[in-house]
Amino acid sequence: MDDNNSRSLDKYEFTKAMTDYMLGFTEGEIQKLFAYFDVDRSGDIAFDEFIRAIRGPMNAQRKKVVAQVFKKLDRDNSGWIDISDIRGIYVANKHPDVISGKKTEDQILQEFLETFETAHAMRNNEAPNYVVTKEEFDEYYNNISASIDDDSYFQAMMVSAWKLDQAAKPQGTAKPADNDIFGTAARRNAPEA
What we know:
This protein has helices at 11-20, 27-37, 47-55, 60-73, 83-86, 96-99, 105-124, 134-146, 151-162, 184-189; strands spanning 8-10, 44-46, 80-81, 132-133. The chain is mainly alpha-helical. It folds into two domains: 8-55, EF-hand (Recoverin, domain 1), CATH 1.10.238.10; 60-189, Orthogonal Bundle (Recoverin, domain 1), CATH 1.10.238. Helix 3 (47-55) crosses helix 8, helix 4 packs across helix 8 (134-146) and helix 4 (60-73) runs parallel beside helix 9.
């Protein structure tokens, strides 16, 4: 299907695949499907866009653990996560760009927050403001969730990455190991399938 090896499908490749696999869609239906999958309106369907559209949003079990993480990060209970909430949770002073003087700790923390805003901004054509709403946080994890088949693995990843099994620490006491937000420890410790 990906004739040009771009790791995405353009409109021509998508239309050709729909026709080649004889799925019975009209030209108009194929165009509507393409528009549905091409969330960012780039003219290409990226693998992540396709998987997210097929898999849909998180189930209740996954939403529950994501809500626990959001609650843990929203240290001032404001309903959003901002730079003051993540200071001490995400330690930026050990970041190579901070050490080399290329960026400040606040710039690294803003980039960290922007990570959670990107998926939502892409769907809603918004610019990042470095304040992560619950909706933005959920959308980020909807995208992560779409590529993880097993609920127990998703749960283990979230618990490990965000240390949900540990009591909350006062601000400023986090260790560099607390930066394992992408679940590498959970993947290392996950039971064999």
